[in-house]
Amino acid sequence: xxxxxxxxxxxxxxxxxxxxxxxxxxxxxxxxxxxxxxxxxxxxxxxxxxxxxxxxxxxxxxxxxxxxxxxxxxxxxxxxxxxxxxxxxxxxxxxxxxxxxxxxxxxxxxxxxxxxxxxxxxxxxxxxxxxxxxxxxxxxxxxxxxxxxxxxxxxxxxxxxxxxxxxxxxxxxxxxxxxxxxxxxxxxxxxxxxxxxxxxxxxxxxxxxxxxxxxxxxxxxxxxxxxxxxxxxxxxxxxxxxxxxxxxxxxxxxxxxxxxxxxxxxxxxxxxxxxxxxxxxxxxxxxxxxxxxxxxxxxxxxxxxxxxxxxxxxxxxxxxxxxxxxxxxxxxxxxxxxxxxxxxxxxxxxxxxxxxxxxxxxxxxxxxxxxxxxxxxxxxxxxxxxxxxxxxxxxxxxxxxxxxxxxxxx
Length: 410
Description:
The protein is mainly α. The protein has 20 helices and no strands.
């Protein structure tokens, strides 16, 4: 087997098996650091051996066995096996979360371990993206708009705190779920987003295994908390976004924007399920949270048969509600994009320019400016904004799309 083919097989296995292997090792050895390092060593071994030996019939089983051996070897070297085995019962806490019942899913257990309230919210999200989502430190750093070294330190400290604080490896009891679920939802949302438009260095602009896993785990959490509006809202948001995935990338590998997509290629069953969840939450009469509002915005988009039929006034009204719930610069940027469709690009550009101090390193900020300037006939400024967006865009399909848009300016 060629080295390139073997590396591709390792990459595929990493995308599909990483979280399962880390979760299994964490359950077995009770240490996130050991689990992650043993898993990484197993994949490194695969890179070295598979070109000569060939890809095994069951790559996941091979990697799991190899990672287990690596972990045991490390414990023997450190003479820690007895210590770990003594502490293992704490990690193997299988008590069912009454009264909702236990969910035997290793990755869900791992998410709740990483999202313990003893950790800061941003740390919970970053750690879970690494341990469950399999994202690299550079990918996570880009999601948080921070330096890679700072993110590496944050994740390392989080793993150490889980070990020293003896945080158990389990889905929490019912009375603890509400405290933990916000961080879990934030993690799953970011995992889904990374899958929907990846920032990694791989060749695929969309990572379906990540979007599918985020949806699967969100469904599991909804079975734990069926009355939680934000869980339902996040699930609806994911479904309505996933429904558009087939139309997201062109045959030539370019990103296809929402307004240009072939709506006949959207998944009607996912849209129907997402709309049903949105209607159920509206009928509840409870004030919606962030994910429910985002789902409602996507419901408006997916209700329009053609892009020109989009009810932009309703979308702006929903963003007005979202700004009150989540007054972040990114929400303000997305609202401005909707305002441009309603009130014109000049009004939107004035709003966006005020956001530059907070979003100068965010590629979507420069994309919005480029499009507004383009519509205003300010070609040179638009081209400069496209250049900055292309330099910051981590996804190859998006970079290709922006390059095409810039070059159309002449």
